[in-house]
Recover the amino acids of this structure.
């Protein structure tokens, strides 16, 4: 999974959001490291939707009241939740291995 | 904001349609965030957004391709339909994947080899020298036909005269390749450098990166010891610091001050790492001829005018020193000077690769024609249901251009790879001044070649096949009958052409390989096995006189003899096949006085230690080699000399024995001075000193006490592998004197291999091209026969049904194709015999009609032809009449 896909899923795990809000959430989550630009953001959203990880909110009742009609809101699907969890576990495992390798070796130059 | 909306037109349509407004809004928000942070921040946002859009374009293309099967009525129909053309072409090429890959592969091979050879030609002949106004640069030297020397090297006195008197040159400068022992903390290094006159950089038009050029005072005899270093040395040794000026370098045991740094371009003609002023003395008359001259013409001056100007200035010398006009100066185009050794090779390779490309093109043409013939039915139907002809033609063109782009790209990659492999395999022969990297010209050449081949040889045959009326096309195609006569004839003609070209190349490649083999087996006149050589440069200050020089060398030899496995140690002033030459003149006793027009050939002069001959394995024709008493009287007494066979033949023609005859140095005895006579004690067999293909010059060996300080090459004859002793020899040299490095350490086998590496390279290149042509011909012929057989299934089925035997069928098929192949081979071999004449200068005496090569070529090509046709013929014989007749 690409970093930006992971970050988008992560942003949507907290709340259902629209495009610009997703971009801001991603920027915040990555501590400013990942900034999404319009075409790649919507391109990624399309492909995530295509693979069933997120879906567009169709029903107006699910929308927060203060947002205008034009914006498309997305939410995480069940599959999306599972994918996010799996990817998080995978990353966690890698981080664990990485930490153990990066431990200062005894006798090494400090 | 409207600008961004326009830019979004470049983004994928599906995104734009659905999210266009939101994307605009988002971009607006992103611009708004930067408000108050200055213009640079706004510009950064714009750049990122642009990159974002641009990045989506290739992704979109991939997406479209993936969906190509599911595209309904594409919206692009409204536009030029190029998009659908491309998509359709992709589908059709993808459908016949094997044929497409074959075409791309053949194009890639043909174009790749063409690109490789073109990059050679480009680097050598087309790319301008990296200097301002390179057209005005000329090479200056002197010629002396009487001395049997085409280029003598420039004499400093002559040069000073030209420089004073000339009117048409902006500057003339001399260049002399020199290497220095550079003292370092660890011991010493050998560094390639050059001695130049003060105008050298003015000639090239190069300016120092740092510091200044040599001035008049520094370029005068006994001037201050200064040096300019190259950018590479500046970076490596001084880390590019600007305080390098004024620093000191110990070169050849003397201290030089750095006064400037020169850019990379100044390393001309290659590998020069530092420069010292030449400090020549114009008042010394008639000194040696050894320098290279470079000059820059004034604007608008032609080469003829420049030459006339040189001759005019030389007149003073003709009037005084050189009354017989033995040595005359000349200027020639610098490019011509630098590429003289490569002209024939480059044109041969160019011709070979053009032939190879033609074979590849014939193949492509045959394949495309067969494809087009097979698609007549499809095309006919499309025409019939209303497709416009232009649409079909454009469709075919797009297909071919796609093939050519793929083939060209692969070819460019192959060519680049091949040329870099070639250059690295030629460490000595590849000219250092030339660059063979990719440039605009190469890219343009590749694109032009690939598009031309694809359009001429792909599109044209397709048109040719298609060019019949709709009804006929459908009628014949639906009947699945054999191909139309015209198409079939063209196919056979292509096969003939392929085999003709392939056999031509095969013969020429074979001849060159045979010539190479002959060169390799030439007797060099010495025994290169288990011999290691290296050079030492002993600076003047270490051994100021001959006695100390001789003593130092004896110390070196004695130390080397202690190394394990050493059988013999000798020293020589100038080792064979090492790019070294030192010429002087000799006169025989009682020889008739030379007339003004008589030749006075230059003699290769060497000083050798007594052990040199056995160490190098040089054979004796008569007399004896030196012993320790030879030359013991020193430089002023009569002494002994060993001459080579050529010398003996030229000095004393028709004499059976020349032992005891006497010669003296110089062309004419100086009246009044006493003559030092050298009597011949031995005649050595000729050594191929200048390379296996070069003629042998008359040469002599002087005993070592006469010229001890000239002896710089140590020759070690080993019991076993000579390379194994290399590091021990280096260490031993450090023991003798840590400031004198042992450099240019190579075995004689290596030197011999290097001396013929250029021939090896082009011979094998041609052989590879020939084999490639053969493979292409094999593939082409196979493809054509297979296609024709597949078109004849119905006919063959009927024959079988009517009682033809399987062997009859395969014989019919084979007979037809082999006839075509043999016509090609005969034409090709006849052509090769004719073409051999143009190769003669490269053939080293191998006759162009060499029977062995012709026979091998005929057999190889006939076998290839048989192989190519045997499989299709066998397939034809297996035709099941029931299946083939029912197929309709």
């Amino acid at each position: 999974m690409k970093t930006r896909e992971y970050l988008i899923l992560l942003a949507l795990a907290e709340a259902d959001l629209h495009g610009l809000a997703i971009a801001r959430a991603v920027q915040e989550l990555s501590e400013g490291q990942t900034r999404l630009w319009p075409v790649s953001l919507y391109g990624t959203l399309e492909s995530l939707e295509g693979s069933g990880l997120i879906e567009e909110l169709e029903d107006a009742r699910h929308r927060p009241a203060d947002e205008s009609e034009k914006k498309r809101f997305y939410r995480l699907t069940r599959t999306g939740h599972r994918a996010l969890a799996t990817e998080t576990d995978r990353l966690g495992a890698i981080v664990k291995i990485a930490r153990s390798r990066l431990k200062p070796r005894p006798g090494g130059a400090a | 904001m409207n600008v961004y909306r326009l830019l979004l037109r470049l983004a994928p349509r599906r995104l734009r349609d659905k999210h266009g407004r939101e994307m605009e809004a988002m971009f607006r928000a992103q611009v708004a965030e930067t408000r108050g942070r200055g213009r640079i921040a706004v510009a950064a946002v714009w750049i990122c957004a642009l990159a974002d859009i641009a990045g989506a374009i290739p992704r979109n293309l991939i997406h479209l391709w993936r969906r190509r099967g599911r595209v309904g009525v594409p919206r692009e129909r409204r536009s030029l339909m190029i998009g659908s053309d491309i998509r359709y072409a992709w589908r059709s090429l993808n459908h016949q994947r094997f044929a497409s890959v074959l075409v791309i592969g053949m194009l890639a091979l043909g174009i790749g080899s063409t690109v490789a050879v073109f990059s050679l030609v480009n680097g050598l002949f087309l790319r301008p020298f990296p200097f301002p106004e390179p057209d005005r640069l000329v090479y200056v030297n002197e010629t002396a036909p009487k001395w049997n020397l085409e280029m003598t090297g420039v004499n400093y006195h002559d040069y000073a005269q030209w420089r004073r008197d000339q009117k048409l040159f902006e500057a003339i400068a001399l260049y002399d390749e020199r290497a220095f022992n550079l003292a370092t903390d660890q011991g010493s290094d050998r560094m390639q450098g050059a001695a130049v006159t003060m105008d050298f950089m003015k000639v090239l038009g190069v300016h120092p990166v740092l510091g200044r050029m040599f001035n008049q005072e520094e370029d005068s005899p006994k001037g201050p010891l200064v040096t300019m270093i190259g950018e590479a040395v500046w970076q490596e040794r001084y880390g590019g610091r600007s305080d390098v000026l004024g620093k000191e370098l110990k070169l050849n045991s003397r201290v030089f001050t750095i006064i400037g740094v020169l850019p990379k371009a100044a390393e001309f003609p290659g590998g020069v790492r530092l420069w010292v002023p030449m400090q020549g003395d114009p008042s010394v008359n008639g000194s040696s001829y050894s320098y290279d001259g470079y000059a820059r013409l004034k604007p608008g001056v032609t080469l003829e005018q420049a030459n006339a100007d040189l001759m005019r200035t030389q007149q003073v010398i003709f009037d005084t020193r050189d009354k017989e006009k033995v040595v005359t100066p000349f200027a020639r185009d610098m490019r011509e000077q630098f590429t003289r050794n490569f002209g024939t090779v480059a044109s041969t390779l160019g011709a070979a690769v053009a032939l190879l490309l033609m074979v590849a093109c014939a193949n492509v043409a045959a394949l495309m024609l067969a494809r087009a013939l097979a698609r007549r039915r499809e095309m006919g139907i499309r025409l019939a249901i209303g497709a416009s002809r232009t649409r079909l033609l454009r469709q075919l063109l797009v297909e071919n251009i796609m093939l050519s782009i793929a083939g060209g790209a692969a070819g460019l990659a192959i060519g680049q790879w091949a040329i870099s492999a070639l250059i690295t395999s030629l460490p000595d022969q590849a000219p250092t001044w030339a660059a063979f990297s990719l440039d605009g010209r190469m890219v343009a050449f590749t694109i032009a070649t690939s598009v031309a081949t694809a359009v001429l040889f792909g599109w044209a045959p397709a048109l040719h096949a298609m060019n019949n009326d709709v009804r006929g096309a459908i009628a014949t195609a639906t009947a699945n009958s054999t191909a139309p006569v015209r198409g079939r004839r063209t196919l056979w003609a292509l096969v003939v052409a392929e085999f003709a070209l392939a056999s031509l190349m095969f013969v020429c490649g074979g001849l060159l390989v045979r010539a190479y083999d002959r060169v390799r087996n030439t007797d060099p006149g010495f025994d290169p096995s288990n011999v290691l050589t290296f050079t030492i440069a002993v600076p003047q200050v270490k051994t100021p006189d001959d006695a100390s020089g001789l003593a130092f060398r004896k110390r070196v030899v004695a130390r080397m003899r202690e190394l394990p496995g050493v059988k013999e140690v000798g020293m020589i002033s100038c080792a064979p096949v090492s790019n070294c030459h030192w010429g002087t003149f000799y006169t025989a006793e009682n020889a008739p006085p030379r007339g003004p027009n008589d030749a006075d050939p230059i003699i290769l002069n060497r000083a050798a230690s007594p052990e040199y001959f056995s160490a190098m394995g040089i054979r004796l024709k008569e007399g004896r080699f030196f012993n320790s008493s030879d030359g013991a009287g020193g430089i002023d007494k009569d002494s002994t000399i060993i001459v080579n066979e050529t010398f003996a033949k030229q000095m004393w023609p028709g004499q059976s024995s020349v032992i005891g005859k006497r010669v003296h140095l110089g062309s004419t005895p100086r009246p009044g001075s006493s003559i030092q006579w050298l009597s011949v004690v031995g005649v050595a067999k000729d050594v191929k000193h200048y390379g296996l293909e070069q003629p042998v010059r008359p040469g002599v060996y002087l005993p070592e006490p006469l010229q001890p300080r000239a002896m710089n090459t140590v020759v070690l004859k080993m019991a076993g592998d000579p390379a194994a002793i290399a590091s021990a020899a280096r260490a031993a040299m450090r023991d003798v004197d840590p400031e004198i490095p042992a450099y240019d350490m190579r075995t004689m086998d290596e030197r011999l291999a290097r001396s013929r590496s250029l021939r090896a390279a082009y011979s094998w290149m041609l052989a590879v091209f020939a084999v490639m042509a053969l493979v292409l011909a094999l593939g082409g012929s196979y493809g054509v026969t297979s296609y024709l057989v597949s078109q004849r299934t119905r006919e063959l089925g009927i024959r079988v049904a009517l009682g033809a035997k399987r062997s009859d069928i395969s014989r019919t098929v084979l007979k037809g194709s082999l006839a075509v192949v043999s016509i090609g081979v005969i034409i090709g071999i006849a052509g090769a015999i004719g073409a051999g004449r143009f190769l003669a200068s490269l053939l080293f005496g191998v006759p162009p009609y060499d029977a062995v090569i012709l026979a091998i070529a005929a057999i190889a090509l006939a076998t290839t032809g048989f192989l190519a046709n045997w499989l299709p013929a066998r397939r034809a014989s297996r035709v099941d009449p029931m299946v083939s007749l029912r197929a309709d």
